[in-house]
C-alpha cells in the first residue's frame, strides 16, 4: 500500500483512489475536465457505460476501464472506440453522444473513477411514498377489463410503464416509474406459499433504484399506489411467494433490500460485497438477477461479479438464512425450469449456463454454451428426443443453445446440450409458450439494421428456422423481446425507437402465433422493451 | 459526494479518503509528519490503538478518531489524552510511548486514516507452510507426559506460545507464533461431530493474522507443525466439531476464512462487511469472536460493528449456509452455556449480553447489564436460587453480573439478572470450575496498581467476596486471566509484565482452588496472558 504524501506543490495532480487504497502520482499530462464536463460525463457514464463496465470500472460484461487500462490506449483511440464500437461487443455511440461528449468521455475514463456514496435503510425509508392508502385498495377490479390479459410494458427512456389491454390492444395508461425500468414482476402461483390476489400487484425497478407498486384493479389514474428507492443503480426485483415481501437488488450500493410488499417500506438490507469464486474481494459485487423460488420460501439472488447464487430464506428476516452457492462469473439473468425446482442462469463471461437446485440449495450443473449466453425471460419446452429442454440466445453470436432440463425423467439428457440452432444475429431474448409449435429469438445485438430489426422463429420438432420476420424497417429502430398473450395465440414483439428515444414513436407488433402473420401494431409507445403478460407470468410454465 | 478537483496547486494538501468517497480540503494548518514518523505512528496505531478505535478510526469500543473528531480537540489535548488516558476507559500510554511518539500519534490521528489492502485466497495460500508432513505425525504421544493437563499459554509480546506441564509446572517449550496471539483453541468433545484425538491439536491466531498449528503429541522441538496467514489483523479462531476445519476471523480485511485443519490451507473466504442493525453500511465490520457450536455442525461468528451473529454451517463449503442473527453492537467475546445450546456474548458498547439459540438459529434473549461487559472465557455455575447461571466482568466498572441461563429447567429465571457482585475494579476475565465453590474475577482495567494487581474471589452460595488476592506487587505488572487445572484443584493466574514486555519477566502464579493459598510461581514467561488447559477446554462445562 502506498501512503499519502503531504505538502506537495502539485501541478496537474491526480488522486488515485480505490475502495482499498490511496495512491498519488504527479504528471504534466494528467487528463483534466472542467467541472461541468466532468459531471456530465459522470452522468452519461452511469447511464450508458456502467451497466457493462461497472461504476468502479473494474469490468464485467465490458472491459476494465480503470486508468491503468485506458491511459495505455490514449485519448484518440478511446474516442474512436466510443464512437464506432468494437467487434468484441462494444456498441457504437456516435448516434447517441456528440463529438464533444465522446471526447469528454474518453478523458473521463482516463481519470480515477469516483466512488458513489452508500445508502442506509433510513435513507431508503425517506423515499417511501404512499399514493393510495392500503385501506383504500379496492376489493375487486374497478374496471370491466380482462386484467389477466393485461401486458405491463417497460417504456425505457420515458421512465414509464404502459398498461396495455391484451384483448383490445388499447393502452390503458402510462405510469410514472423510475428511470429506465429494467424489470417488472408480480406475484406468481407458488407451490408452498399462497399470496392473495395473485397477479394483481406489480412491482417495477428502475435503473435509478426506484421501486413502484402498481395495482391492476384500480382505475387507470390510480394504478400507481406506492413508491420507494433502494439504491442509486439497480436491475431486478421479485415478490415473495406469499406476497408479503418485495426484494430488489442494487448495482450500487451492492446489496439487496427486502421491503414490505404492502407499503414498500424497506425492512432489511444485506450487502453482497464479498469474494468471487477465485477468492478475490469484489467491492462492486452487483445483484444481476432476483427471482422467487416457486417450491421454497426463498429468493434467488445472483451476484454478478462474485459468481455467488444466494438463496435467501424469507421466513425470518431478523435471523436471515442465506445459502451462498458458488458457481461462475459473471452471473447475469436466468429462468426456472417448468417444475420450478431448477434455476438456469447465464454466467455470460464464462460462456456457461449455471443450474441451481433450489430444493437441495446447491449447485446442480454447469453447461458450457457459446459466446455470452443471455436468455432474458428464457424458454422451456418439450423436445421429442431430449424431453423437457431449456434454451438461450447469445449476446456474442447468432445461436440458440438448447439443453435437457429434466434430471428425474430424462437423466441421460439432463444438463447436456441437446442441439443448437444458428440464427442470423446475436440476440438477447428467447421465448415460447406451451401451446406453441415455435420458439422465437431476437437479434438485437447484430450491428446491421436488417438483422437487428428481424426476429427468427424455429420449429420445436424440426429445429429448423421456419420464418425470419422483419418487424420494422425504420432507421434507428430495433426489434426485441417477445411475449405471448394469455392463451398463447399471439406473440408481441417490441420495436425500440433507439434513435428517437424521447418520443412515443416506438411500437409493439402483434403476430398470430400459429400463422406467424402480423395482426396489429400498437403505436404511441416510447422505447418499449420488456413486456409482461399477467396470466403467463402468474403461471410460469415456459 | 464531493468529486475530485484537478490541477490544484496545493500547499499543505490533505487527501480525505474513505472507502466510499473522496474529498479534498486545502488549509495552511494541516497536520503533517515526516515519512519515517508517519510509518512508525501507523505501526504503533495498528499495534496499540486499532483494536478499540478501528483501523479506519470509525470507533468501536473506543471513540471515533477520524479527523472530523480529532481536529476539534487539537494537538495538545490529544497528546494529553494519549499520555494520561481518560476516565471513559482509555488507557494511559506515557509508560509505553516516548514524548515524541505521543506527539506524533496525536498528529497521525488528525490525518486521514490510510486504508489497508485486501487479501485474496491466493495470497493467503502463499503463506501456508508445512513444518511436519501430516504423514509423519506420530500415532501416539512421543513423550511420557500427562498432555491432557498441559496449559497452552499466550506469551503476547514475545510472539510465542508456551507449553507448560500442569503436573510438574515446567515450561516444556516456547513455540513461535504470530505477533500478539489473541486466542488459542483446540478440538472439543462435540455432541454431533466427532474429531479424532480430541485435545491433541491446537491452533493459534496472531494479531497479524498468522495461524499456527501445534501438535501436543510431538516432542517439544517439533510441536509447531503448520502455519498460514489469513488477514493483516485478526482476533479469534475455532476448530470444527469434526476436527476437519479451522476457521479464523479477520479484523482487516473484514472476513472469515475456513482452512483445512490438517494442512491449514485456506479453502474459503467470506466477507463480513455489511449492514449494522440500524441498516448502515460498515466497511470495517470486524470478526470479534468465533466459536464452534457443540450441538450443531456450525461455527458462530460474531461481527463486532454490525451486531450480526453469523451461524455458519460447515457441512458444505461450496454451498455455504449462513444464518445472520441480528443482535446488538458492538459484539465482543462470549461463551456457551453448559448445555452447549446457547451462546452468550457481550455487546459491550450496548451494555448488553446477547444470547443466541444455536439449535433454532435465532436470537434467544438480550440481557441488560452494566458498563462494557467482557466475560473473556466466561463462567457458568449453579446458583441455589436461580439454578444454572452465567456471569461476566465489566471493562467499565468493578462488577460481576450473574444471570439465569437454563430456560428449560428454570424458565422464570432464564436470561434475567440473578444478582450482582461489586468488585474493587473493572476487569476483563471471569472463571470458575464445576468442582469449585468460588468464582474468580480479575481487575485488569483498574488504573491503580494495587487493584490491577489483585484478583477477587467470591462464593457461589453467599455471593460475598471471600478473598482479595494480591498476585504481584512489582511495578508495571498486572494480574489477569484465570484458568483451572484438569481436576479443578488449582487456579492459574497470569502476571503480565506490561512495562518490561520484551523480557521473560512475567509469571504465572498457581493457587490452591480450595484454600486460595499460593502454591507455585512459574517464572520465565514473557507477557503471559490467556491460558488454556487441555482437559478443561476439551470438556466445556463451566
UniProtKB/TrEMBL annotation, chains A, B:
Gene3D superfamilies: C-terminal (heme d1) domain of cytochrome cd1-nitrite reductase, Cytochrome c-like domain
Coiled coil spans: none
EC number: 1.7.2.1
Keyword Transit peptide set for record: no
Domain of life: Bacteria
Keywords: Heme, Iron, Metal-binding, Oxidoreductase, Signal
Domain Cytochrome c stretches: 36-113
Keyword Transcription regulation: no
Pfam family, one: Cytochrome_CBB3
Gene Ontology MF annotations: electron transfer activity; heme binding; metal ion binding; nitrite reductase (NO-forming) activity
PROSITE patterns cross-referenced by the UniProt entry: CYTC
Matches recorded under InterPro entries: Cyt_c-like_dom (IPR009056), Cyt_c-like_dom_sf (IPR036909), Cyt_cd1_C_sf (IPR003143), Haem_d1_sf (IPR011048), Host-pathogen_enzymatic-act (IPR051200)
CDD domains: 8prop_hemeD1_NiR_alpha_gamma (cd20781)
Signal peptide stretch: 1-28
PANTHER family in the record: DIHYDRO-HEME D1 DEHYDROGENASE, PROTEIN NIRF
Record protein name field: Nitrite reductase
